[in-house]
Write a structure and sequence with these properties.
By secondary structure, the chain is of the alpha+beta class. The chain has a single domain (about 5-160), classed as Gcn5-related N-acetyltransferase (GNAT) (Aminopeptidase, 3-Layer(aba) Sandwich), CATH 3.40.630. Helix content is about 25%, strand content about 35%. It has helices spanning about 10-25, 80-95, 110-115, 130-135; strands spanning about 5, 30, 35, 40-45, 50-60, 65-70, 100-105, 120-125, 150-160. The strands form 2 sheets. Strands 1-4-5-6-7-9-8 form a 7-stranded mixed sheet, sandwiched between helices. It has a two-stranded antiparallel ribbon with strand order 2-3. β4 (about 40-45) and β5 (about 50-60) form a beta hairpin. The longest helix has 15 residues, at about 80-95. The mean pLDDT is about 95.
């Protein structure tokens, strides 16, 4: 059974370790903005005290929570879904009406995952990875399945804010 809990200040080094292990850098870039996941709020997924997943987010505006990172050590184990549900709960509690996230054109497995969990494509940013490489030069030119890594895709899922009256 995987437990989901908020990231605490003592977890920051672990979050940075996961970010480095999964993505080769302490930063990530989306829509021209540089993020340092170790500095963001989020959730850790743990199994028997071992971290097996994480999600970080930021509140973009009063209506929008942006998922910045989502990583699961084990695929098809419900970790990503549980982390997204935790983010949706935070969004609802904050009065936000939507969760958004950005992925890349090569990430077809993620597109399938997100769409099956209620996300819809809302934007295509052609050539965005050229700008990303200016901020993070180590981003490869070739992505998953040998697909040229060129564009960003933005997805959105509606969230029902909690009203507090039951």
């Amino acid at each position: 059974m995987v437990d989901i809990r908020p990231i605490e200040p003592a977890d920051r080094a672990e979050v940075e370790r996961i970010q480095l292990e999964m993505w080769g850098s302490p930063i990530c870039v989306a829509h021209g903005e540089v993020f340092r996941p170790a500095d963001l709020p989020g959730f850790l997924a743990e199994d028997a005290g071992k971290v097996v997943g994480m999600l970080t987010y930021q509140q973009q505006d009063p209506t929008t929570i942006e998922v910045v990172t989502l990583d699961a050590v084990w695929r098809h184990a419900g970790i990503g879904t549980a982390l997204l549900n935790a983010a949706a709960t935070v969004a609802a509690s904050a009065g936000a009406t939507r969760l958004v996230l950005t992925t890349t054109n090569d990430n077809v497995d993620a597109l399938r995952f997100y769409q099956r969990r209620g996300f819809r494509l809302i934007a295509l940013r052609p050539g965005a990875l050229d700008e990303t490489r200016k901020l993070k030069p180590e981003v490869s030119r070739t992505g998953n399945y040998g697909i040229p890594l060129t564009d960003e895709l933005e997805l959105e899922r509606p969230v029902r804010p909690t009203t507090g009256d039951g």
